[in-house]
Amino acid sequence: MRPHLTKRVQEELDTVVAFFRNNYPEARLFLVGGAVRDMVMQRPVSDLDIECFGIDTKTFEEAMRRLGAKGVGRSFFVYKYKDIDIALPRTEKKVAVGHRGFEVRLAKDTKEASRRRDFTMNALMLDLGSGRIVDHWGGLEDIKRRLIRVVDPVTFTEDSLRVLRAMQFAARLGFRIEERSRELMCAISFEDLSAERIFWEFEKMFEAPLLHYGLFEMSRVGIDRKILGFSLNRRDFFKTARHMVRALKFVDTQMRPYVFLYVLSCDLHLNPQKLCERIHTPNIYKKVLKFQKCVPSKISDRFLGALSLRFALRQWIGIYADDLKRRAVELGIYESRFDPGIRPADLLREGYAGKRLGEELRRRIRAAVRERFGVKEGS
After folding, report:
1. The Cα angle at residue 89 between residues 87 and 92, in degrees rounded to 5
2. Residue 15 in 3-state DSSP?
């Protein structure tokens, strides 16, 4: 079995395999991690990680030098050859606080090396010599059952980020967390996580196609309470999940990263700025969400027209509700903003200035919106 790769990456992989076969025949190369999982699931394979068994540290470093690979983590035995990470198999033991506080040693065999992986689906290994998959932890069966299951409870708890990874994997793959794994995750604190690492995992979820799966597991393992500061009940989950599904169907591509926080804040009446602060988003998230209006219970053309003064409604996340996209297209405000044709320069020539200028400008803009869109609800 071989992964389906782009021509360029396939050529890079062939170069690495041929290099070791011709120069270090005692070495055994295994493709590891998410690439094998995605290959099994027939998903696009992007990042490649190779572990090299059968040679010592000195020989490996010599091989990397001859190949032209660059060291990106010497203490972790990791090198990069173009788009491929190549490393010696290793074990990791927590010895200090923080995600760098690990003692790293060489692993003796494939089972020992794969034990450090977070989930069984990510512990699969593809033997690049024979083409066979090595599965020490039942990852293939878990993929069939669409389960996220912890490999080793002891090593798993050494990095709390793995709980957030489970959340974003659920949203990306449509998997559910296995029950014993969920119980383990519920007992883990996130106090050791840096702001950057927290947002990194949320960002991956925001780009995922199945936000409601991420929402579900976020609540099941207590991320909502421990990080976001609220607890999602059953009724709110179903409402919010339904809106997230619709939003991803109708919202413009460039607005997709903001859907999760928008729907969450609107449906649960939460402050989006505070949500952003809790997961340490870049300022662009606060800026975008600041101008996003929640969907009102009754939606008039006048409301849509007033909103289109700010931006074309394709940029409004609430466009998923009811039949709003069609209505916005018919009103001519889906692709472009509404221009009321009122210019401050015209009012200046009429003699308005200062406070009176601002008041008159707002009055005429409101009048233009009323004239163009009327006041009838749901029209």
Report:
1. 110
2. helix
C-alpha 39/C-alpha 201 separation (Å) is 22
What is the Cα–Cα distance from 41 to 59, expressed in whole angstroms? 35
What is d(CA 85, CA 69) in angstroms, rounded to the nearest whole number? 9
DSSP conformation class of 311: S
User: Residue 271 and residue 39: Cα distance in Å, rounded?
Assistant: 40
Chain centroid to CA 357 = 46
Element (H, E) at 153: helix 153-156
Structure tokens at 30: 């295994």
Reported pTM: 0.89
Domains observed in the chain: 1-145 (3.30.460.10), 160-292 (no CATH), 301-373 (no CATH)
Q: What is the spatial distance between Cα 62 and Cα 315, in angstroms, rounded to a whole number?
A: 54
Q: How far apart are CA 273 and CA 71, in angstroms?
A: 40
Beta strands in 108-221, from DSSP E residues, in sequence order: 125-127, 133-134, 147-148, 176-177
Is beta strand 28-32 parallel, antiparallel or unpaired with respect to 48-53? Answer: antiparallel
270: Cβ–Cβ under 8 A, 6 or more apart, which residues? 230, 264
Digit-coded pLDDT (tens) for 240-287: 999 999 999 999 999 999 999 999 999 999 999 999 999 999 999 999
pLDDT of the residue at 66? 96
| Coil/strand/helix, residue 286 | helix
Residue 33, exposed/middle/buried by CB under 10 A (0-12, 13-18, 19+)? buried
Q: What's the token pair of residue 234?
A: 């059953």
pLDDT tens digits for 72-84? 865 558 999 999 9
Strand duo 28-32 + 90-94: pairing: unpaired
Residue type, 169: F
Give the CA diameter of the chain.
89
